[in-house]
RNA sequence: CGGGGCGUAGCGUAGCCCGGUAUCGCGCCUGCUUUGGGAGCAGGAGGUCGUCAGUUCGAAUCUGGCCGCCCCGACCA
């Protein structure tokens, strides 16, 4: 139920947690660190999948599926990759249980695997081991494959959607004949993520390059889109990696070029996760509950009849039927809630809390006047409208809401992005949250020092920003451009 | 892995210090009245008090062990 949501200003973390639970997006499972994604939350993921999948297809990718289990030895083949993931891998050691008089069932010690299997934390190794058999000639390239899957990373501390032991994602893995082509692919998919974040999630993001210490284990370059949450903390919303020839070399993936010479292929990988649901919540929602951009709302319009008796309800059904039909003919998703075990007031509160972008209430007065009451979730404004052309009006309204959410989030980010020029100023400003633009000398040592002293990290080296020479705020050494610092999720 | 908290009906809780078989709210069921911002009244159902052992005539309550989860920090999308 949706009463007494913690206020954001009182305790942002608690607000987030309460909201996820009370808006019925997810709940904690009995398994530590794992969540159950409930229908309302999963429906949002399905909308994300559908939009992204279309964008992947439009850029020439196809879907496939690779095993959840990865032989342990595969991991050893790419040194930095192992190092990056070794600490958080779940390992399967046996393949059978047997009944036991005391404990019910026990692991059968006779059924030990010769080689342990790793539950995938990411699939580069098994995919590259497979690609080796698929790629022989330049004619086999580029290979552009995506997979929708679950992965497991044994995290020390978890948070619903933001960090769970098991999560859902998509991972694209591509192979190319040239370095240049692979870099273009990396950038192309980063741009797909930017468009998706801004046009669908209504979350403004900054495209950038990760520093060495934040780079994906096994990548040459990691690109990212970074978003700023309402509490002033940064959240990485997607990544795209240029893997160079690291995995091709580790797994011997060679192709014969037009000159009949053997060369290692060039690779990329890129992914977004169910974490985006967390980003969506922390970008748009308020003290009244969830706020969803219309393009990702499982249902865009809730229609609520207000009637005193059964006859009136029948009359209302007849009154709204053409309206609902015309809404649906425009591709708008509608829920007509004529459940008479719940009162209208209860439904208002419920749909508001769950983030339905638009609510239409209709009662006896509306039938007399030829009107409906339209309420928008983003501003909580209510307006009585003539029912004539209501589908067009609602269609426009949904567009406005989508746009308004983006503009509000953008304004929030801009108001919380500022340049700082000294480390003293930085230390003071970082306490207020937000993105800080500062000069950095490019060394991991400086970055580490800042992290230890302020808990802030370099979120990214922004792409496409005008070069600006300066001096590192910490070391005083020369710097070619400002980078973005923030405290992050 | 450290620190803190919690475990009592579907959910949220009181009771525990000071032992006597469990409180209240929400939800659920029945009936009537209601319905434009979480309805009212009346009646009703629902609990191995996380688990195991100990103390005791008697344990939700005292003692010890175990299990589970959550929150805060260090690592990570």
How would you characterize the overall build of this protein?
The chain has 489 residues and is of the alpha+beta class. It has 3 domains: 12-284, Bira Bifunctional Protein, Domain 2 (BirA Bifunctional Protein, domain 2, 2-Layer Sandwich); 301-405, Anticodon-binding domain (Rossmann fold), CATH 3.40.50.800; 417-486, C-terminal domain of ProRS (Translation Initiation Factor IF3, 2-Layer Sandwich), CATH 3.30.110.30. Helix content is 35%, strand content 28%. It contains 14 helices and 27 strands. The strands form 7 sheets. An 11-stranded mixed sheet has the order 3-9-10-16-13-12-11-24-27-23-22, with helices on both faces. It has a 5-stranded mixed sheet with strand order 18-17-19-20-21, with helices on both faces. Helix 2 (39-58) packs across helix 6 (179-200) and helix 9 (310-329) packs across helix 12 (390-415). The two termini are 28 Å apart. The mean pLDDT is 94.
Entry keywords:
alpha+beta; BirA Bifunctional Protein, domain 2; Rossmann fold; Translation Initiation Factor IF3; 11-stranded mixed beta sheet; 5-stranded mixed beta sheet; 27 strands; 28% strand; globular; RNA-binding
């Amino acid at each position: 139920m949706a009463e007494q949501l913690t206020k954001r200003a009182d305790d942002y973390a608690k607000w987030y947690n309460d909201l996820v639970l009370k808006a019925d997006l997810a709940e904690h499972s009995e398994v530590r660190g794992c969540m159950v994604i409930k229908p309302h939350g999963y429906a949002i993921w399905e909308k994300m999948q559908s939009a992204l999948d279309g964008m992947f297809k439009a850029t020439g990718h196809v879907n496939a599926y690779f095993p959840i289990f990865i032989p342990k030895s595969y991991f050893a083949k790419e040194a930095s990759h192992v190092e990056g993931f070794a600490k958080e891998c779940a390992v399967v050691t046996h393949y059978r249980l047997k009944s036991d008089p005391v404990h019910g069932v026990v692991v059968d010690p006779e059924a030990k695997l010769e080689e342990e299997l790793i539950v995938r934390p990411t699939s580069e190794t098994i995919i590259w081991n497979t690609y080796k058999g698929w790629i022989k000639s330049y004619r086999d390239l580029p290979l552009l494959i995506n997979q929708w899957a679950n992965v497991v990373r044994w995290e020390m501390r978890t948070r619903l959607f933001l960090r769970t032991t098991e999560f859902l994602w998509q991972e694209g893995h591509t192979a190319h004949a040239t370095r240049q082509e692979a870099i273009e692919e990396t950038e192309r998919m980063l741009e797909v993520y930017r468009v998706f974040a801004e046009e669908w999630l209504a979350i403004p993001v900054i495209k950038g390059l990760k520093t060495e210490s934040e780079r994906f284990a096994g990548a040459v370059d990691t690109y990212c889109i970074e978003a700023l949450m309402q509490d002033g903390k940064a959240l990485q919303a997607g990544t795209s990696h240029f893997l160079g020839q690291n995995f091709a070399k580790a797994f011997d993936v060679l192709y014969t070029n037009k000159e009949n010479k053997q060369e290692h292929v060039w690779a990329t990988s890129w992914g977004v996760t169910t974490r985006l649901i967390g980003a969506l919540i922390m970008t748009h929602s308020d003290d009244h509950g969830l706020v969803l951009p219309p393009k990702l709302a499982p249902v865009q319009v809730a229609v609520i009849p207000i009637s005193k008796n059964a006859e009136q309800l029948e009359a209302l059904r007849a009154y709204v039927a053409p309206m609902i039909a015309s809404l649906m003919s425009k591709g708008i998703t509608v829920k007509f809630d004529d459940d008479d075990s719940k009162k209208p007031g209860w439904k208002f509160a419920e749909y508001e809390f769950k983030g339905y972008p638009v609510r239409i209430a209709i009662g006896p007065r509306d039938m007399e006047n030829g009107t409906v009451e339209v309420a928008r979730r983003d501003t909580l404004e209510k307006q009585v409208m003539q029912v004539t052309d209501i589908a067009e009006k609602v269609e426009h309204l949904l567009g406005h809401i989508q746009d308004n959410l983006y503009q509000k989030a953008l304004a929030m980010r801009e108001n919380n992005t500022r340049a700082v020029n000294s480390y003293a100023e930085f230390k003071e400003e970082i306490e207020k949250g937000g993105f800080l633009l500062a000069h950095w000398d490019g060394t991991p040592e400086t970055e580490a020092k800042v992290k230890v002293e302020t808990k802030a990290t370099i979120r990214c080296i922004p792409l496409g920003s005008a070069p600006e020479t300066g001096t590192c705020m910490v070391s005083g050494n020369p710097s070619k451009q400002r980078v973005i610092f923030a405290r992050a999720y």
